[in-house]
Design brief:
The protein has 306 residues and is an alpha/beta fold. The chain is 41% helix and 18% strand. Strand 1, helix 1 and strand 2 (26-31) form a beta-alpha-beta unit. The two termini are 36 Å apart. The mean pLDDT is 96. It binds nicotinamide-adenine-dinucleotide.
Length: 306
């Protein structure tokens, strides 16, 4: 297949691009390089790279010409960055997604897979792992835009028959990620024997999904038609305090683990619990994320620091 990945120089997109070229697909990456280029040299040689902004419709239309499918991953993210840049965050989400789906329509592309987020669950009540059916509660510009796009894409399925899948990623982590996210941040602090900084009590939980599992789910979902919202979650809940201790142990670090108040601008992002159900993913594709956090953290250590 000929596949466009917007945001394909980013953490998830670059890993997906590598996988897709290994599977002999033709890959085009459109990325503004806002966060640098995470594509490795070998993969970069095997893809077509277009530097540009997803908010530019002509560019997206041109880049997607002749494609069979689009992965739309371009976004502004990272809690501090989003909190400081809410307008740009929403612009890239809303205008970017509108451009992608319109380009798909003009170029007769039958499928769009969009990177949504578990962030849209916000403070949704959790008795069991969150399923795609629970009432969502997006609180931030980032999460609101993601939810808007899920609905916008679904309407295009209804009206134009384009197959659309919104992927609700749960804290994706892996090697070569940058320190906007908690796992690479704790690694960096631990490796440098600096204090590992935990917000609040550290009892807040997240569901961490390893990059290889995430990419595999994306690849399997390429074969699914229709209109779906799908969680991609590891189905295991880890508190941030335990994450800090585990990274300290794996890296043999002398760091202290310190507990600090989260800055005010992060309050809307501070969620007590998050765990997702991958039941629907399993039903659709036959697979679900399996790599445990301990395994994933060891892979990061081996890859980045040995
Ligand atoms: N990493 C996670 O845990 C996570 C969780 C939930 C959802 N997501 C979503 O998955 C997608 C990929 O995330 P990631 O972790 O790879 O992030 P990332 O920041 O590494 O990648 C995003 C890419 O988008 C590019 N980009 C930003 N603005 C752009 C623009 N206007 N035009 C073109 N390119 C632009 C950046 O340069 C970057 O390469 C995003 O849509 C994100 O919202 C990620």
């Amino acid at each position: 297949m000929k596949i466009l990945i917007t945001g394909g120089a980013g953490f998830i997109g670059s890993n997906l691009a590598k996988k897709l070229v290994d599977l002999n697909h033709e890959v085009i990456v459109l990325d503004s390089l806002l966060r640098g280029n995470k594509l490795d040299k070998e993969t970069f040689k095997r893809i077509q790279f277009i530097k540009g902004d997803v908010r530019d419709f002509e560019l997206v239309r041109e880049a997607s010409k002749g494609c069979d499918l689009i992965f739309h991953f371009a976004a502004v993210l990272g809690v501090d960055i989003v909190a400081d840049n809410p307008v740009e965050t929403m612009d890239v989400e809303v205008i970017g997604t509108r451009n992608v789906i319109n380009a798909a329509e003009v170029n007769n592309i039958k499928k769009v897979l969009y990177a949504s987020t578990s962030g849209i669950y916000g403070h949704s009540a959790i008795d069991n792992a969150l399923t795609e059916e629970v009432l969502v509660d997006p609180r931030t510009s980032y999460a609101m835009a993601k939810r808007y796009n899920e609905i916008y894409l679904a309407s295009h399925h209804e009206e134009k028959g384009i197959n659309v899948i919104s992927l609700r990623f749960f804290n994706v982590y892996g090697a070569n990620q940058d320190t906007r996210m908690v796992v690479p941040l704790f690694f960096e602090q631990a490796i440098k024997n600096q204090p590992i900084t935990v917000f609040g009590t550290g009892m807040q939980t997240r569901d961490f999904t390893f990059i290889d599992d995430t990419v595999e789910a994306c690849v399997k979902l390429m074969n699914i038609d229709g209109c779906h919202i799908v969680n991609i979650a590891n189905e295991r809940e880890w508190c941030i305090k335990d994450l800090a201790h585990k990274i300290k142990e794996i890296t043999n670090s002398k760091s202290d683990i310190v507990y600090i108040d989260a800055p005010k601008k992060r309050y809307d992002y501070e969620v007590e619990r998050r765990i997702g159900s991958s039941k629907k993913l399993k039903e659709l594709t036959g697979i679900k994320p399996e790599i445990s956090l301990e395994e994933g953290l060891k892979i990061i250590y081996e890859t980045n620091y040995k």
